[in-house]
Specification:
heterodimer; A: about 500 residues; alpha+beta; 6-stranded antiparallel beta barrel; about 30% helix; about 30% strand; B: about 240 residues; alpha/beta; two-stranded antiparallel sheet; 10 strands
C-alpha cells in the first residue's frame, strides 16, 4: 500500500473497529463455526499441524470466543487448558495473521464505499469524518453508515467518532456507535477505567502502583514528569487521557490484491469438500470486489498440498463478472477436470480485478445484449466449455491448414452491407482431429477412399494443393485433394509426407 | 407475430369496442391512426425466395430446423444465415458441437460479429444453447449438431423436454434458434420447430480441363411452416475455399 503525502489532522475522525478481529477473520471464511463452541488462542496457526490442536495451546490465552463457547463458561483470558476444562467439546484455533490481514483488506474495501480518506490500523481503520459531514444529517448517521458497510464483507464493527485519532479509537472500543462532540473528549474519557486506554500492561501496572485507576486521575499528571519517570508511552497516555492526540491521519491507497483462502482443519483429497470451501471464498471475494465496483477478470487457484508443493492453476474468464455461480462453475470444472495430485491442506483463490463493462447503449443502435449481461453469458459459457472455446473465431497468422482460435467477443454495433444472395462460397466442415484414411492411387491421383463410414470410388478429383512450413519448429506438410465420391459426397483428403499417411480432413458442406 | 396479424387483431378489437360503446350509448373520442412499433418478428435470411416463402425470414422466438444430406451445403447455408443476420448489427452465435468451423470461410467482419462456442458433446451443446438464449440479446443462434460427438448422458439423442425448454428460452429471448442436423430423428426438434428447411444437393460443379471444384448446385426448400409452406427456388452455392 502506498502512502500519500496529504497527511493532515482532520477536524473529525471516525474509527471503525472490528470486534474480536481474530475471530471475525476466521468466521468470514468459515461462517458455520459461528454457532459452534470455538475459542481463538493467542498462538500462531500452524499449517503443519492441520487438524491437531494449535501447538502450546495449553498455556496460550483465549483472545476471542463465540457465543456458544461463552455459554459453556469459556471466557477471554483463560488458558487453553482452563477453557477445555470447562468445555470439553470446545474447538480451539490459533490466530492466523494471514486471515487477519485479509479481513483488514476487506474492511478497507467496505469502508471505502463510505469515505475516501482512510488509514489502516491493526484493529480497524480510521476515516476522515470531516470531509463526510456534509453528506449525512448527523455524525450518528455517518456512524450508522460506517457500521453497515462492513456487513457486506461479513464483518461486525463498532464505530467511534471524535476530534482526533486516539480518542476515536478509544470511543470505538465501547461498541455500537459512539459520537464524542468536539471539545468533549476529556470529559468523555475522564470517568473511564484505565483499561479503556490502549496502553501496555506494564505501564498500566506501574500506574496502578501510583494509585491511578481512572483516566481522569491519569489526566491530572504532568506530561513532562510522567514522561521523565515512566517513559514516552506514559507521556502519550497522559495526553490521550486529556483528549489530546496530534497524530495526523495518513491516507493509504486501497489494497490492490484480492485474495481469499482458508487453511483446512484436515487434509482433503476429494473434490467435494474443496468445492464446499470454494463457494464461501468466492462469496467473500465477490463481496470485496463489489465494494470497489470491480469484477473478476480471471482467477488463480492455489492448492497447498501436504507434500509442501503448491498446485497453481490459472482460470481465465472471457469477460469480467461478479456472478458467483459462474465463478464457482469455473473452479468446479478445473478441479473436476484435474483433481489435486495430493491431499490439500490449504486453498487460496486470487482474483484478477477488472472493471465491469459499463457501457451506455446508443439510442439508435440496433438491439443487442447489455454489456454486463453479455459478459455474464460469456463467463457462464467459458465455465462450461473452457475459456479457449468461446469467442469470436479468428484465423491465426499461419498457413497451417485449418488452424483456428478465438478472440474476445466484442461485436461492432454498426450495421454493415449484407452480401449478395448466394455469393457465399461452399464451406468446409473440418474434422478436428483429422480422420485416418486409406486411399487407393491410380496414375498418381486418388481413385478410392476409405475412412470409417466414408468410403467409395472417386468420380472426380482436383489437386494436389501443397502446403508446408514451420520447418524450424513443428514442421507440417500437406498435399490436399478435393474429391467427389460416387455417393455424391465432396471431401477434402490430404497426404502428409512427413508422417507418410493419408487423412480425411473434412467434408464440403 | 407478423404485422399483418397484429393489424387484424387491432381491427377486431376496435370493432368490438365500437359495438360495445354503441350498445352502452358511449361516445368514443375521435380515432387516431395507430402506429404499431413492433420489433421485427423475423430474421431475414438474405435469400429473397426463401424470405418470401417464410413471410419475411426465420421467425424470432421459435425453433427452425435445417437438415440435409452430406455435402448438401448445410454449413454454407448456416454461415450465410448467420452472416446476413449479423449485418443488421445484432450479434449472432454458432454453437458448433462438432468443432467444424473453418474461420477462413467467414470474412473478418463476419467473424467479429459471430460468437463461436465449441462444446465438447451434445449435452454441452444443448446447455450452451440454453445459456445463450437465457442471456438474450442475440438475433440468431445456430445449433450445429451435424457430427456432434455423442453424449453418454443422452444415449437416445435430444429428449423432447430439452426442445421444449429451448423453445421457451427462444421465446423469452426473442431470438431465432436454428437447429442444423443431418436428418437423424434422434437429433431433430420435430414438432417443436416452427420452420423446417431442407437442403438437397443436385450435382457438384466441376470446371476446367484439369477440373476444379466450383461448388454444388443445391436446392433449399421449406418443408414445414406453421400456417402453410411453399417450396423455395433452387439456390446455387459458389466455389469452395481450398487450403
Amino acid at each position: 500500500m502506498g502512502r500519500s503525502d496529504d497527511a493532515v489532522s482532520p477536524p473529525r475522525v471516525a474509527f471503525v473497529r472490528v470486534r474480536e478481529l481474530a475471530l471475525s477473520a476466521l468466521l468470514r471464511v468459515e461462517p458455520e463455526l459461528a454457532l459452534q463452541p470455538l475459542a481463538v488462542l493467542d498462538v500462531a496457526h500452524d499449517l503443519a499441524r492441520a487438524g491437531a490442536l494449535p501447538p502450546g495451546y495449553g498455556a496460550a490465552r483465549v483472545i476471542a470466543c463465540t457465543a456458544a463457547a461463552r455459554a459453556l463458561g469459556v471466557a477471554v483470558g483463560q488458558t487453553g487448558h482452563q477453557a477445555r476444562a470447562v468445555a470439553p467439546d470446545l474447538r480451539l484455533r490459533g490466530s492466523s495473521a494471514e486471515l487477519a490481514q485479509r479481513a483488514r483488506a476487506a474492511l478497507l474495501d467496505a469502508v471505502a464505499t463510505v469515505g475516501a480518506r482512510l488509514a489502516p490500523a491493526p484493529q480497524g481503520v480510521w476515516v476522515d469524518a470531516g470531509e463526510l459531514s456534509g453528506m449525512y444529517e448527523s455524525e450518528a448517521g455517518l456512524g450508522a453508515a460506517l457500521t453497515e458497510a462492513p456487513r457486506r464483507v461479513g464483518l461486525a464493527v463498532s464505530v467511534g467518532i471524535a476530534g482526533n485519532l486516539g480518542v476515536a479509537a478509544v470511543a470505538a472500543r465501547r461498541g455500537g456507535v459512539t459520537v464524542i462532540p468536539a471539545g468533549e473528549e476529556g470529559r468523555y474519557l475522564g470517568p473511564l477505567a484505565l483499561e479503556a486506554l490502549p496502553i501496555s500492561e506494564a505501564l498500566r501496572a506501574e500506574l496502578r502502583r501510583f494509585g491511578v485507576t481512572r483516566v481522569a486521575e491519569l489526566a491530572r499528571l504532568p506530561v513532562d514528569a510522567a514522561g521523565l519517570r515512566l517513559g514516552e508511552e506514559a507521556a502519550r497516555a497522559v495526553r490521550l487521557a486529556r483528549g489530546e492526540d496530534d497524530r495526523p491521519l495518513v491516507p493509504h491507497a486501497l489494497p490492490a490484491r484480492f485474495e481469499e483462502g482458508v487453511d483446512l482443519e484436515w487434509e482433503v483429497q476429494s473434490v467435494e469438500p474443496l468445492l464446499f470451501v470454494t463457494r464461501r471464498l468466492l462469496d467473500a471475494l465477490v463481496a470485496r470486489l463489489s465494494c470497489r465496483g470491480l469484477g473478476v477478470g480471471g482467477m488463480v487457484l492455489s492448492l497447498d498440498l501436504v507434500s509442501r508443493v503448491s498446485d497453481e492453476r490459472a482460470l481465465p474468464l472471457a469477460a469480467p463478472t461478479r456472478d458467483v455461480p459462474t465463478l464457482f462453475a469455473l473452479v468446479r470444472s478445473a478441479l473436476e477436470g484435474h483433481g489435486p495430485p495430493d491431499a490439500v491442506r490449504a486453498l487460496r483463490i486470487t482474483a484478477l480485478p477488472q472493471p465491469l463493462r459499463a457501457t451506455q447503449l446508443g439510442l439508435f443502435d440496433p438491439p443487442g445484449p447489455a454489456p454486463e449481461r453479455l459478459a455474464l453469458t460469456l463467463s457462464r459459457l467459458a465455465a462450461l466449455v473452457g475459456g479457449d472455446r468461446v469467442g469470436a473465431p479468428s484465423a491465426p497468422d499461419t498457413h497451417r491448414p485449418y488452424a483456428a482460435a478465438v478472440t474476445a467477443f466484442d461485436p461492432p454495433r454498426t450495421p454493415r452491407e449484407p452480401g449478395a444472395d448466394g455469393a457465399r462460397a461452399m464451406a468446409l466442415h473440418v474434422y478436428r482431429p483429422p480422420r485416418e484414411a486409406e486411399v487407393t492411387l491410380g496414375a498418381g491421383a486418388p481413385v478410392g477412399v476409405r475412412s470409417g463410414e466414408v468410403r467409395g470410388r472417386v468420380v472426380a478429383c482436383s489437386g494436389p494443393w501443397r502446403v508446408q512450413g514451420e520447418w524450424w519448429a513443428e514442421a507440417y506438410a500437406h498435399e490436399g485433394y478435393d474429391v467427389e465420391l460416387e455417393d455424391g459426397g465432396l471431401y477434402l483428403i490430404a497426404y502428409d509426407p512427413i508422417a507418410a499417411r493419408w487423412r480425411l480432413d473434412g467434408v464440403y458442406e | 407475430m407478423s404485422s399483418a396479424a397484429v393489424d387484424l387483431r387491432l381491427a377486431a378489437a376496435r370493432r368490438v369496442l365500437a359495438e360495445t360503446s354503441q350498445h352502452l350509448g358511449l361516445v368514443l373520442p375521435a380515432q387516431r391512426p395507430s402506429v404499431v412499433r413492433a420489433r421485427p418478428a423475423v430474421v431475414s435470411t438474405g435469400i429473397a425466395p426463401l424470405d418470401l416463402a417464410l413471410h419475411g425470414g426465420l421467425p424470432r422466438g421459435r425453433i427452425s430446423e435445417l437438415s440435409g444430406a452430406r455435402s448438401s451445403g448445410r454449413m454454407a447455408v448456416t454461415l450465410h444465415l448467420l452472416a446476413h443476420a449479423s449485418a443488421a448489427g445484432e450479434p449472432v452465435a454458432l454453437i458448433d458441437a462438432a468443432d467444424a468451423l473453418e474461420p477462413d470461410d467467414l470474412s473478418p467482419d463476419e467473424r467479429a460479429r459471430l460468437l463461436w462456442v465449441r462444446p465438447a458433446d451434445l449435452r454441452a451443446a444443448l446447455r450452451c444453447a440454453d445459456l445463450l438464449l437465457d442471456g438474450g440479446g442475440f438475433a440468431l443462434v445456430a445449433l450445429y449438431l451435424v457430427g456432434a460427438p455423442p453424449s453418454a448422458a443422452l444415449p437416445r439423442g435430444v429428449p423432447a423436454s430439452a426442445w421444449a425448454r429451448l423453445a421457451q428460452r427462444a421465446l423469452g429471448a426473442n431470438a431465432a434458434l436454428l437447429v442444423v442436423t443431418d436428418g437423424d430423428p434422434r437429433f431433430r426438434p420435430g414438432a417443436f420447430a416452427a420452420v423446417g428447411l431442407a437442403v438437397q444437393r443436385r450435382r457438384a460443379l466441376w470446371v476446367g480441363g484439369a477440373p476444379l471444384l466450383d461448388g454444388v448446385e443445391a436446392e433449399l426448400m421449406v418443408r414445414r411452416l406453421r400456417g402453410g409452406a411453399a417450396p423455395a427456388e433452387g439456390f446455387r452455392w459458389g466455389a469452395p475455399t481450398t487450403p
